[in-house]
Amino acid sequence: MLTQLKVSLKARTRTKYSILLENGVLSNWQSWLSIHCPDKQIVIITDKIVENLYAYSFSKKLTNNGYNVLLLSIKPGEESKVQKTKEYLELEMLKAKFGRNTLLIAFGGGIVGDLAGFVAATYMRGIRYIQLPTTLLSMIDSSVGGKTAINTPYGKNMIGVIYQPSLVVMDLSLLNSLSKVLIVNGLIEALKIFLTLDNKSFTYARLNINKLIEREPHSLKSVIARAVKLKVKVVRIDEFEENLRMILNFGHTIAHALEKLSNYHILHGYAVALGILVEAKISQLMGFLSSENYDLISRVFYSIGISKEMLSAFNADEVVSIAKGDKKNHSGKIFFILLKDIGEVYTKNDRVATPVDEKYILQAFNSLL
Ligand SMILES: NC(=O)c1ccc[n+]([C@@H]2O[C@H](COP(=O)([O-])OP(=O)(O)OC[C@H]3O[C@@H](n4cnc5c(N)ncnc54)[C@H](O)[C@@H]3O)[C@@H](O)[C@H]2O)c1
């Protein structure tokens, strides 16, 4: 006879955390670390560039104030966001005898954030971590929402968990050392969020695009705050991406294929920009988005240096073949997030991901070449 036992547990996931967004909030570290790390056991995961710029001097300050600190640094780039690096980090932490009372700090861009978050999620079955994003992209998007992942030969971000940080610390002064290319890389993720959710913010970003690229502090802070608030709203409704959260994947079905085909040499934001152009074009070809809106969107991307020529390095059939492996897909169909308007996603029966016939993908791609 079948015995059925019921298991009912109190959810253990952290459901509340703060996001500090301020110029100079890093130098104010004592105020937030004392709350989040009473045992003074800290592992900082960073990359070589951020280590030299900020993380090494930060770790020294902590050591001088009685913290037991292990600073682990990875080689910058997507090739580090893999299982092998994760294992290296974990073994270093175990070797140094860091226990479950450790606070992990993910100090870097989205690559460090995704990888270190995943380490935190599985180290001794889960330890607390702080996201300390240092790129515009990681402030606008990747440090919020708890998505952690590594890449595999079969695709990007294929292995990971959703595991929320205890705190997110965004210090705008860290953006001063970023190149213009990396500022644009981050702005693209903000444009993506605005295009799917908020016409007003898209207009604000469009009208202030030059100021944003010049990193004028007021407009930059406004765009980060707007993007983060929108993302938090979505994550609160659908943390585990059952439906609504997929809208943040706008542009990404194509982008992930481009990243894989370029062997991860194309920057994530630039791949997303090209993905947005193709996916907005599909939205237009399928009759959801007006051609005026498509033109308005494409003009903004062209004005920040995204060009059709960047797409010509890719073969449309290869892109479609990789897009067939996207995480949103099921029942043998390729699913996309499509736009109905600026700030509004096309939905059918409340579902935000729409199956798209291959012919539209190829048509959209080729029309842009
Ligand atoms: N988890 C999520 O929700 C989510 C969302 C969007 C993107 N992502 C992921 O984020 C990653 C891309 O993140 P990224 O664009 O931040 O890339 P990144 O982490 O590679 O950083 C880009 C480069 O900037 C350097 N850098 C970082 N901070 C700097 C600073 N302050 N000054 C000068 N240089 C600095 C880094 O060393 C690196 O060379 C991708 O792997 C993507 O999949 C995740």
Structure notes:
A six-stranded parallel beta sheet has the order 1-8-5-4-2-3, sandwiched between helices. It has a two-stranded antiparallel sheet with strand order 6-7. A two-stranded antiparallel sheet has the order 9-12. It starts with 17 loop residues before the first strand and ends with a helix. The chain has 369 residues and is of the alpha/beta class. Strand 10 (339-341) and strand 11 form a beta hairpin. It has two domains: 18-177, Rossmann fold (3-Layer(aba) Sandwich), CATH 3.40.50.1970; 180-368, Dehydroquinate synthase-like, alpha domain (Up-down Bundle). It has helices spanning 29-36, 48-64, 83-95, 110-122, 136-142, 180-197, 199-207, 209-213, 217-237, 252-261, 268-285, 291-303, 308-311, 316-323, 358-368, and strands spanning 18-22, 41-47, 68-74, 103-108, 128-133, 150-152, 155-159, 167-171, 334-337, 339-341, 344-345, 353-356. Nicotinamide-adenine-dinucleotide (NAD) is lined by residues 47, 49-50, 53, 76, 78, 81, 108-112, 114, 134-135, 137-138, 141-142, 145, 147, 157, 174, 177-178, 182, 185, 268.
